[in-house]
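Input chain follows. Return structure tokens only.
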Amino acid sequence: MALASLARRKAYLLSRNLSNSPADALKYSFSLSNFSRGFASGSEENDVVVIGGGPGGYVAAIKAAQLGLKTTCIEKRGTLGGTCLNVGCIPSKALLHSSHMYHEAMHSFANHGVKLSSVEVDLPAMMAQKDKAVSNLTRGIEGLFKKNKVTYVKGYGKLISPSEVSVDTLEGGNTVVKGKNIIIATGSDVKSLPGITIDEKRIVSSTGALALSEIPKKLIVIGAGYIGLEMGSVWGRLGSEVTVVEFAPDIVPTMDAEIRKQFQRSLEKQKMKFMLKTKVVGVDTSGNGVKLMVEPAAGGDQTTLEADVVLVSAGRSPFTSGLGLDKIGVETDKVGRILVNDRFSTNVAGVYAIGDVIPGPMLAHKAEEDGVACVEFIAGKHGHVDYDKVPGVVYTHPEVASVGKTEEQAKALGLNYRVGKFPFMANSRAKAIDNAEGIVKILADKETDKILGVHIMAPNAGELIHEAVLAINYDASSEDIARVCHAHPTMSEALKEAAMATYDKAIHI
């Protein structure tokens, strides 16, 4: 029911010439509160109820409505977009871009004939720009809900039956939302480490790292994954001395090893320090800063690192606590992920799950695809998501993007494959803009030439990768890409040249 209707109802009640007596006031209050609960829940049964308004949840809700299904979306945060939009993908990319602009002004502008007498960081202004981007986008999703007639309930949803969700609303009330089909899309939360308490001031998660009030002189990042390296890059560009502590022997262990080595060298040139095969054994926050006790992962002498801020970025865990899964018998695995079949259905009829709460890559775009496919199944259509063909991007500078198999995976599977590579140092557009660090690497089947995997390190790798994603989804060969005319001069010509090098020979190297 529209807010305008609520206003009309309120005006009607006021026009009833209620006296100022406590009894009449109570009757008026009771009537309005009951009416508000009806508005919040849309007490009629829904075709689809989505718990969670992140990338998977809100996309599922909109798609369901577009398919003609009566849909309600429940979100506890009070703003749509989930972790990604509010405290993840979007604000981090805003700060990555802003910090890169500052870094370019400090280190690259002069080479292009642009000289500045002084450059300084206005951190509050930088944060304000980030917050404005987030606010505009969250409001935009609410607008899409209204456009597609999705009912939006703000509150914490909990399953009380396979067709009912009890919601503790942000206004302090409670309502029950009924649905023939319920989709759990509650996302993930920061994975904590034993003995380390995140206070979002000196020991922060990615959420706190996006909202620091001043630039730390020394920043320690625990975890050399996507998020840790991106946030380390932001503050490193702004002047922090960044040290990354990682238990594993490599950064971003899912990355192709050859690309990973080049990527690490690039980050080290940006003065990011790495302590690999290192275990965190303790933390001391009794002083002004933070002392982090570490030792070799295999055992050995303990050392102490000091920092102003420590970022805990050791991965994420599915957020399923307090959802009432055990009450209705939804099965989960040992790490709390909800088990689903290839139609995203749980073991409980009518209850589905998508995104970070189920197995698969914990990526916003994967969750979106889950949401669309899940709703298509509910609507009697066919949906499909192939997790082996989901791209991944690290949004540092240079960016690293990949899709398909790494060379290590190809070897482990015993595949016969060819490799083609092309460096951006030989790409005319990259040289023209003086931004030629990086490489394209393609793996293709030796017999059929079918592309198995593509890995790109480049300033805009996150955009370049999608030609490869399309190719892999349609089982294209490296020759298919090589024989497509690419505009000149463009960075994408490096992908064409790498494809040429895979099945034959590159031209420009």
